[in-house]
Amino acid sequence: MNNRLRVLRAERGWSQAELGGRLGVSRQAVNAIETGKYDPSLPLAFKLARLFELRIEEIFDDGEVDHGHG
Question: Best exposed site among 15, 26, 49, 68 by fewest CB in 10 Å?
Fold first, then answer.
């Protein structure tokens, strides 16, 4: 699943470890989500959305919907 996590994190100047700390997960988990190797649980996705003040679908893209970008 594609996501904007790396970009959002970089905009705030947070390391993967720092973001992990804010979410209560490991740096490795953050890296796995960012690289698309691992999809977050729903509670974790909600935490991310609240942290970045976005809707879940503004962070994650399942590739099945045209979000009208561009």
Answer: 68
Task: Express each pLDDT in 9-52 by its tens digit.
Answer: 999 999 999 999 999 999 999 999 999 999 999 999 999 999 99
Is 48 within a domain? yes
For residue 58 the two structure tokens come to: 């503004």
Place of tokens 């989500």: 33
pLDDT at 56 over 60: yes
**CA separation for the pair 16, 21 (Å, rounded):** 9
Cα(36)–Cα(48) distance, integer angstroms: 15
CATH value at residue 45 = 1.10.260.40
